[in-house]
Amino acid sequence: MIIDGSKIASDLRAKLQKNIIELRSKYNSVPGLSVILIGDNPASKIYVKNKEKFAKEVGIFSEVIRYPEKIDEKTVLEKIKELNNDKKISGILVQLPLPNHINKRRVIESILPEKDVDGFHPVNVGNLSSGYESSIPCTPLGCYLLLKTVEKDLSGKHAIIIGRSNLNGKPMTQLLLKENCTVTITHSKTKDLKKECNRADIIIAAVGKPNLVKKDWIKKGAIVIDVGINKTGSGIVGDVDFKEVSQVAKAITPVPGGVGPMTIACLLQNTLACFKRTNS
Ligand code: GUN
Question: Of 263, 215, 213, 260, whose CA–CA distance to 240 is shortest?
Fold first, then answer.
């Protein structure tokens, strides 16, 4: 089974759109999303363009604030302060990566936790790991929702996460623990990655290594979620060798058309959730 992330994301956006129409008549306002984009990173420019497009499509007020690569940190922090106090804006996202002269930690921590649609603020990270309500980072949230379309009850499943990033691996662990999975996080220093994968019911691959996960790494019937987006000579591929692994996995996400579209849909869901929390 191929998990159709494009279709599942499109259904989620349709649901959000309906919800926003209802909220507009109730509150006479809509959620607002501000995205700050610094510099000319080509991938970031594409992501931000898509975030803006889909936000508008579902009825979210959306603005992109663009700064040149050389912008000073103080200007960015002042802008965030202004957005924190702006009633029209429910969610603030600063697109990563940032130029080296800008302190990522200071920037993330300057966003009000209530408007942190990425779920990167330490308050949200802490709330998620304590099992409290929080913004949940969009990529692992997207992976989680895709998994749940295949298997409602994840209790007792053994999940292997490849990659320990703050963006995906660590928050993914928290989401799966909440579902009563047994979770193993693997990374570049893991001794025998193939052996770890061989015992997994669920594999989440997020390391940025083209076609790393092979057919003989997979236990029959495992669910495989591929977060990788790697540019190669033969086009965009994931971290999983899709052609091989799709022969043995119970379900697998394609790249493109798997996790990618869900990440944006989850950002829109987070923006709506921030709006609801401040308006209820
Ligand atoms: N760059 C790549 N992925 C992300 C993300 O999920 N959020 C932000 N802010 N930047 C990113």
Answer: 213
